[in-house]
Specification:
This protein is an all-alpha fold and about 80 residues long. About 60% of the residues lie in helices and about 0% in strands. It has helices at about 1-15, 35-45, 55-65, 75-85. Keywords: Cytoplasm, Initiation factor, Protein biosynthesis.
Length: about 80
């Protein structure tokens, strides 16, 4: 099913002139740990232009809060400790 969806997306992208093979938040589906690290880089690149905004910290806090809503307490603690290092 996923392969069919990816092929459909690629066909649509080609039809509308988007470059395929280029990884973006819209077309990148992470599978391995390495992929998830790369996905995090893509997210970081998307957010970084807003660093100078007064509301940037609010954005980061809200993103983390939304991303962590279903995590176990131990996992949330691990993430919190990795951020404070």
């Amino acid at each position: 099913q996923r392969l069919v969806e990816e092929a459909d997306y690629q066909s649509t992208a080609e039809l509308f002139g988007k470059r395929t093979g280029e990884k973006s938040l819209d077309n990148f589906i992470p599978k391995s740990e390495e992929d998830f690290v790369e996905y995090a880089e893509l997210i970081g690149h998307k957010l970084r232009p807003y660093e100078k905004s007064f509301h940037y910290l609010t954005l980061l806090k809200a993103v983390m809060r939304h991303a962590m809503t279903d995590l176990k307490a131990a996992d949330a603690k691990e993430i919190a400790s990795s951020v404070t290092v």
